[in-house]
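Trying the structure run again after the queue cleared.
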Amino acid sequence: MRSRTLFLPLVFATALAGLVAPTSTAAPSADKAGQSARSVRVDVPQVFGHRGASGYRPEHTLASYRLAIQLGADYIEPDLVPTKDGVLVARHENDITGTTDVADRQEFAARETTKTIDGRPITGWFTEDFTLAELKTLRAKERLPDVRPGNTRFDGRFQVPTFAEVLALVKEQGKKYGREIGVAPETKHPTYFDSIGLSPEEPMLRELKRAGLDRTRSKVLIQSFEITNLRQLDTQTDLPLEQLVDATGAPFDAVAAGDPTTTYASMVTRAGLREISQYADWVGPQKDLVLPRNAAGATTVPSSLVPDAHRYGLRVVVFTLRDENQFMAINFRRGTDPNAKGDIFAEVTAFLDAGVDGLFADYPDSAVDARDAWLE
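Done. Tokens:
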């Protein structure tokens, strides 16, 4: 279903880093029918509130999403995992040991178990072993307390939200602020959940339809690190799809199928990007794939990923920009404290200069401020 019309505007107002000609006479350079490197650019690079405003609130809570919207994020990003009774909830992982108070709840002590998820043994508590009613008795907590101790003051205050509640919040906040707010759901571990009869794609599409967000121009971007489910979704919806690409490893569906050739590295070659363009509209690379680092840990010149992706009609959104030094290349750090704030504005500017169309950010206000200054 590659004829879908995307929500974001298709004409980019300003030439970036010499990658796009500033006049309407620019020659097309894409294989994708009717599209060129120029036509797929967005007029304003989009800021995605990564798990909400996870730098300020425990991730994947309604409070985190609400704050991200307040801080100007164009999209919020809920990761989706199912409960035992098939309801999608927003958690980064189905293992909720580190993001809820489940380990302190004696009534659920016997639920601790070890499972193999995407080839790795993990011991903890898992959403698929809880009904929604049981999960709603738990409370969220900060996942990175040593990095963001200020967020721990919110521990115990918020529930685990359902996807339906997230979509209702998006509508409510859109009316409040008078702008359309995007939602970028990511289906987590689709091969694993398929194997236990809890496929996340069908309930996700149902909830989007119930919310009136299943139309071609709805501001929705569906993401996955796997390939098979995105190809299936391409036959089920006209909503934009994003292929996430990590810095190392391979999509687990390829691993499970015994495919040794499909790796994340192969997917960001020209041939790989061209293949992605057959079923997806965006590619979401880990940020080092766009601005590689040298042996010392400093960024070097941009790779060819962005112009190559644009060549095949794909937009590019990088993950994840975080304000703390430890998550940055050394040329953006300030001082030696790993948890101190680095020069996020320089980092955002570097990625925008490299031509990306969007940024995932834990601190959406930092990314929005830097983006707006760059546009000026």
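The chain is about 25% helix and 15% strand. Worth checking whether this holds up in the mutant runs.
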